[in-house]
UniProtKB/TrEMBL annotation:
Heterodimer of a large and a small subunit. The keyword Lipid metabolism does not apply. It comes from Actinocorallia libanotica. Residues 332-341 have a biased composition (Basic and acidic residues). It comes from the Bacteria. This is Hydrogenase small subunit. The lineage of its organism: Bacteria, Bacillati, Actinomycetota, Actinomycetes, Streptosporangiales. Its cofactor is [4Fe-4S] cluster.
Amino acid sequence: MTATRESATGPGTGFEEVHILWISEGMSCDGDTVSVTAASQPAIEDVVGGLIPGLPKVHLHNKVLSPTLGGEEFLAPFRAAAAGELEPFIFVLEGSVPNEKINGEGYWTSFGNDPVTGEPLTLDKWIDALSARAWAVVAAGTCATYGGIHAMEGNPTGSMGLADYLGWDFTSRGGLPIVNVPGCPVQPDNFMETLTWLLYHAAGTAPPPPLDEMLRPTWLFGNTVHDGCDRAASYEQAVFADTYNSQQCLVKIGCWGPVVKCNVPKRGWMGGVGGCPNVGGICIACTMPGFPDKFMPFMDEPPGARLSSTLIKPYGAFIRRMRGITQGTVNKEPKWHHNRDVLTSGYRPHKRARR
């Protein structure tokens, strides 16, 4: 089950075929898988169907999207990869990683059974086996990247993100760090765009994707929600909403957009439409490593919002006044637009000099 290589121009480049082994048996709701089915830039069907020029042939193994009947038929490529009999592959984890060292007499989550003992195979065993052999490792969604809901204070499972489990200095067989694509759930095009970049890199036609210090793609998570928000101009003019059906800035009723790295307001959700503040929802920081603990209670005004909104009030009032004066001038037609019998536009014809 080993794919052939077209060339050996680097660590794992020039592949003609790539398997994607996607496990969503982390502490998860499968929301990231469901979200990715809505992608259009590119669509997952186009990637798997070979419709994107220059990509390797892709074999996707995901329980929700699998054409198999499940059971051992579905598990076969995962077992082969864990045994070193299938390569190259990209390992995608969905859901947070529970600490199986504190599971008492049971287990937190599993994926299939041990063929020898018949006992459930816990997630950590799969992570250990697959990450050690994967050409690239991707964490899909905030639970997999930073722990998310399951890792919040007071949880009994000791859940964590994949980088917390493997180590933040982890590198894959392809020489890549873990690629984190956060979101609760992940924005569909963000994930597919990142995966496509990785596949071009696997084909040997693109460099590794650039990542920030939290291993997020920089071109997707380099700016804040506020930077791309439709309501940012209201903030500048100190016009703040006090109800959720307002068109104004939502920062005083719980929005964390000014400090959250996320491109959803600019990109939208499906087909460029939607995105939390775009449709009247506050940003609760679901793409951030500190989510949810550092941003609760969600509906309360963020600590910094009170100070910043107070400081900007005099500036905003002045700007609104000046823009109102300017608008009063430019929101009128010029005076020479009329139907009288005299030209008043200021037209002055120039006589041509005689030769």
